[in-house]
Structure formats: structure tokens, C-alpha cells
Amino acid sequence: MRVSGFTIVRNAIKFNYPVLESIRSILPICDEFIVNVGYSNDDTLQMIKDIDDSKIRIIETDWDKPETDDILSYQTNIALDECKGDWAFYVQGDELIHHQDLTKLKEMMKRHLNDSNVDAFRFRWLHFYGSYFRYRIDRGWFQKQDRIVRNNGQIESCIDA
Q1: Which of 34, 137, 140, 143 has its CA 20 to 30 A from that of 84?
Q2: Is beta strand 144-150 parallel, antiparallel or unpaired with respect to 120-124?
Q3: How far apart are CA 33 and CA 89, in angstroms?
Q4: How far is CA 60 from CA 46, 48, 56, 78, 148, in A?
Q5: Cα–Cα distance, 35 to 61 (Å, whole number)
């Protein structure tokens, strides 16, 4: 079983996204990691290059499409299309996966590798708000998101990724 990680990022330094931590949070269980780096007004590209891990492949893109609701899904699909693994694990630049969950996630992928009834794994999220001691759980913030998908060309990102 092969696992591809992937993300999109632009202006991570300018907006203080923890993209390095985000990538590193799932890198241990990935066989490859695709980073779609959009043209930025800061040193985001160099920051990603400085990770210097052989698993990471950078795709440089110009997010020249008008800033609409689907720009994130469009760029996400560019990265997803580059994934070669059996499973594609999407993590956004401001999301982290707890290291204690990695073994369990990899075991779930292995267990369901040949189960055609499983197309994705949906995660419950905590949205930290203002500090690490407060988080939101109200309806205004999504509670669950699909983050690991079967990489069979049948699944794509839509709307806001």
C-alpha cells in the first residue's frame, strides 16, 4: 500500500499558516507528498524547499484564475492529480494531524485497501479559536471533513476544497 500526502499553499508566511507543521504532521506515513505552491508575495516556495525531504515534490502554479469559491478546489485537484498512492491524504496548510493518530490511520487504510465500499475517511475536527485552550464546536464551523480518499480518479475536490 502506498500513501500520497498532498496540500496547496500560497503566502503561508504572510498569513502565518503553520504549513511546515501541517506537512510534517502526516509525512511519516506518506510515501510521497505533493505540495502545490502558488505564486506568493513572500518566501513560501523557499520555505517549502527548505524542508529538504526526498518524499516531497513541489508543483509551482500561478493561481491566475479569478479569486472565486472554486479556486481552492481547482488547485487542490491539481495536487491530487499528481498523487500516485493507493490513498491520497489531504491536509490543508492550517491543519495538523496528531502524531498519536498516524498508526491508527495507516492501519485503517491497510484494512480497507481492497474494500470497494470505502472511498474516503472522514475526520472529526477541533477548531481552535484564539488559543489552544478554546475551540469551537457550533454549527458555524464544520465538524467533519473527508481527508483521506481512495486515489482511483473518481474523487475530486469541489467548492472550497
Answers
A1: 143
A2: antiparallel
A3: 9
A4: 11, 11, 13, 10, 23
A5: 10
- pTM greater than the 0.70 cutoff: yes
Please measure the distance between the N-terminal and C-terminal CA atoms of the chain and give it in whole angstroms. 25
Pairing of strands 135-136, 87-90: unpaired
Dihedral angle, C-alpha 124, 129, 133, 135, nearest 10 ° = -30
Residue 146: all three cell numbers together: 473527508
In the chain, what are the domains?
3-150 (3.90.550.10)
SS3 61: strand
Give the amino acid at 12: A
